[in-house]
Prior knowledge:
The chain is an alpha/beta fold. The protein is built from 19 helices and 24 strands.
Amino acid sequence: MCGIIGYIGQKEANSILIDGLKRMEYRGYDSAGVAVLDNGTIFSLKRIGKVAELARAQTKFPHRGPIGIGHTRWATHGNVSERNAHPHLSDDGRFAVVHNGIIENYLQIKAFLIERNYRFASDTDTEILANLIDYHYQKAPHLHFAEIVRKTLLHVEGTYGIAIISKIFADELVVARKGSPLLIGLGEGENIVASDAAAVARYTKRVVYLNDGEVASVRSDNFSITTLHENAVDVVCHELDWEIHDTDLADYPHYMLKEIFEQPSVIENAMRGRFTADGCSAKFGGISLIPRELRMVDRLLFCACGTAYHACLVGKYLIEKYARIPVDVEYASEFRYRNAPPQRNTLVFVVSQSGETIDTLAALHEAKRRGYMVLGITNVVGSTIARATDAGIYQHAGLEMGVASTKAFTSQITILSMLALLFARIRDMDAIVGLQYVQALKSLPIIASDVLKLSEQIRIIAEKYYGYERFLFLGRQAMYPIALEGALKLKEIAYVHAEAFPTAEMKHGPIALISEETICIFIATQNELLDKTMNNIQEVKARGGKVIAIVNNNCIAWEIFCDEVLIIPEVHPGINPITSVIPLQFLAYYIGILRGCDVDRPRNLAKSVTVE
């Protein structure tokens, strides 16, 4: 998802727009622009590349009006160029629009407008919105601004979060949402609209989130929200639960490294207040089900995408191992289209760091349509998933600025490990075993801190192997999804081809890839399977492959058969995946740095994917 910012008040809009865009840079983008209304005319400025380029150009941009909109674009329709960057103005300059999402019927609308002599200056789907709004204004110039926008959107198919300004309606800013997040930050004598709370947190902690199908008219001292069909909306104001310093780098060179090192405190925050008084089980205030109802659950279904999907796979192994409940994990993007037979007594969880992932939202709505109870696990209070689920669990991981998730992933696994404990204790895990599990979880922040001390050793390993182009990640049972996550991080951060397999599956095909140019990373932290894993390592070495092993004991065999060995503490199986992933995060980070990559904002990636 790209960034939208809009301001209306008494101050000069420019500086606030630029500041808001900078605070949304972590979401990924390729160009940026602003438009301000100054003395009855809309003036626009756009640049390819970073917001810093736009900020430098603004020193020669003399327009200082008190109302404006800004945008960071991630190209969908049309190449990366200033002509395709947002904001887009209507043909005659009466309206300016910024837009997140995709207008699916834009070609039909564009043809309709061309027949009516509207001209287009870009290749985007967004520009049709500006001209279609203008078309409806000319048909009915007596209508209010928000009414014109509503009439326009009734003809639009697809997803959108939009902000519009107009020289005709100089004291008003209109926003609308369908499938792409928007909020209104409430100030004193000013209001700010944005797609991300990070953009408004410096100015206000009071925000109102728009729901799908809502249109808001925003002025400097008030606002109103209605539906597309002009129904009134009950407005709920939320308080942001994080501070602006969450976006500071402190003494770290990159957000990714900062967030890797924040994981001990993030794990602690995920657990805080979530153990029962007897210290034998977990509890979640956000789950409204009582133990008797949870005991009646016969099956769990998790839906997620990307890194969150890998976290859910870890949860599957842990829940089935300890609670003995069948668990299915679906890609949210597949579940929404797959006509899977419904099963009774199924509880559905949707997992999304941002709470705005469009495929996960669609899976949520599909699960509800089928009659399932749906619970959410998300990091963002007030996000769409948090508001749309029947109940849920907040991660409390704090703002994650790096596009490639690190601390949010460990937070999700921590919560899923606690869910495994909760379901197990409701069923047949005895109090003593539960107490041991809780004690292991409570020790996790300190153990994670110990694993972080491997940073320098991993940096040295990265220096040896960063030039290689083929990496295989291998793990068994709950370490298999950790291998998947390790491979994904290396792909995201360093643009290296990496794949992951269950360790024993290597001989069923992937072994053909082994050569002197292949790095194999074994996550070998399950002592009951070490003999089998050692056999797989020797198969790699016999074919000239390099081996990096992550282990939790100092067996001499590791030194004999492996090129590199990383020793992490031996821990309870319920928390083993959490400690095992940290070295893989470090490895991706250091290889990315050595290859000259932008580890905080990898190419082609967005922090929250709000388009299909």
